[in-house]
Design brief:
TIM Barrel; single chain; alpha/beta; 375 residues
């Protein structure tokens, strides 16, 4: 039983039932005031309307080609200075080996993000993508956030469009959603003053969509931001999606404080995580998918999130570093069987998708993609 709904929750519930768009004020109410279970119930209506009982996952592998980074984002535990003991940079052989490891594990996708190395030229980043693509052309390369793309534009003095076209020629298939953090300029100034601002973030995604690339989006919550910043963030994403339709998934990312400059903050708890899933699902009426990234949430919260708006758990992952440097206690990867179990225990039906949300059809060690699942 859910509580008796009163205005304004009743008004919001009526809008959800009628598939009407929610306003900034509605979002603020949901984020700050609505009781969690009613919120989850409403988000689940939208989740099942869009995706039924399906929960998607993919077979993927991560490659973070370097952790050396010119920036010092206050929330980042991954970066290293050039001469740090923990600094590393992949060479061509290591990239080939990681790609072959992905192929042996049946990966359909390799997820590539990393630091902005002080000394590497654009060709090095281009070669990361080219090497993966030439080693295993069947594996989809999802690479570089707008922070990296704008850095490449800066070091080459070329437009963003040119950078993306070069990357596409080398084998780039789509873009992940990172680097978004919180779009509000005051919050961004305190978190990551020097890196690409929100306008650049949107310019890169807009250009990518115009070039036919699909991309994801993220929101980093649970640090110094407030509800109004989160709702503003979601509405800015919704506006670009109205314009281009190029986003596939939003991944709400919980801030992990360990080993960061913000280590005095508490990590968001499970209730906060579920609230963010549900609010995201309700506000982003034009996004098909909301992802409960199990690495970041932990398995149990990810399972609950599948009834609070999320319809995707990301993938097998393998070699996750960024959240583990910041204190994540989850394993660095999961087998397909473990992911199936996680999804089935939550009462959902697991569907393997590729990066572009087409069904993956396996026959022994080989695989093919079918039609888009939500055609
Ligand atoms: S978040 Fe990215 S850009 Fe910022 S310091 Fe970490 S690796 Fe560098």
């Amino acid at each position: 039983m859910f509580q008796t709904l009163n205005t304004p929750l009743q008004t919001i519930a009526d809008k959800v039932h009628a598939s009407e768009r929610l306003t900034f004020e509605d979002g603020l109410y949901l984020d700050e005031t609505a009781d969690l279970h009613t919120l989850g119930h409403l988000a689940n209506i939208v989740r099942e309307r869009k995706n039924g009982n399906f929960t998607y996952y993919n077979t993927n592998i991560h490659l973070n080609p370097t952790n050396v980074c010119v920036y010092r984002c206050r929330f980042c535990a991954f970066r290293a200075d050039l001469k740090d003991e923990k600094a590393y940079t992949f060479d061509e052989k290591m990239i080939q080996d990681r790609t072959m490891e992905g192929r042996a594990a049946g990966a359909t996708e390799i997820h590539v993000v990393g630091g902005l190395h002080h000394k590497k030229k654009f060709d090095w980043y281009l070669d990361v993508v080219r090497t993966i693509h030439e080693t295993c052309p069947e594996i989809h390369v999802k690479a570089w956030t707008p922070v990296e793309i704008s850095w490449f534009s800066f070091i080459t003095k070329k437009p963003i469009r040119w950078v993306l076209e070069q990357m596409m020629d080398a084998g780039l298939g789509s873009m992940p959603g990172g680097g978004a953090e919180i779009f509000d300029p005051e919050i961004r100034k305190q978190l990551c003053e020097h890196k690409a601002d929100s306008q650049v973030w949107f310019d890169v995604h807009r250009t990518a969509h115009e070039l036919g690339l699909r991309s994801n989006a993220t929101m980093l919550y649970g640090h110094i931001e407030e509800a109004r910043h989160r709702i503003d963030h979601l509405l800015q994403l919704r506006a670009l999606q109205d314009e281009t339709g190029g986003f596939q998934t939003l991944i709400p990312l919980a801030f992990h404080p360990d080993n960061t400059e913000l280590n005095y903050l508490q990590k968001p708890n499970g209730m906060f995580d579920l609230r963010m899933m549900a609010v995201s699902r309700l506000m982003l009426d034009n996004f098909d998918h909301i992802k409960a990234y199990w690495i970041m949430l932990g398995e149990q919260t990810a399972q609950l999130a599948l009834s609070y708006g999320a319809d995707d758990v990301d993938g097998t992952v393998v070699h996750e570093l960024i959240y583990h440097d910041a204190g994540a206690k989850t394993p660095e990867g999961k087998t397909v069987e473990e992911l199936h179990q996680l999804i089935r225990e939550a009462g959902r039906e697991p569907i393997e998708r590729d990066t572009l949300y087409r069904r993956v059809i396996r026959d022994g060690a080989t695989w093919n993609v079918g039609e888009p699942i939500l055609a």
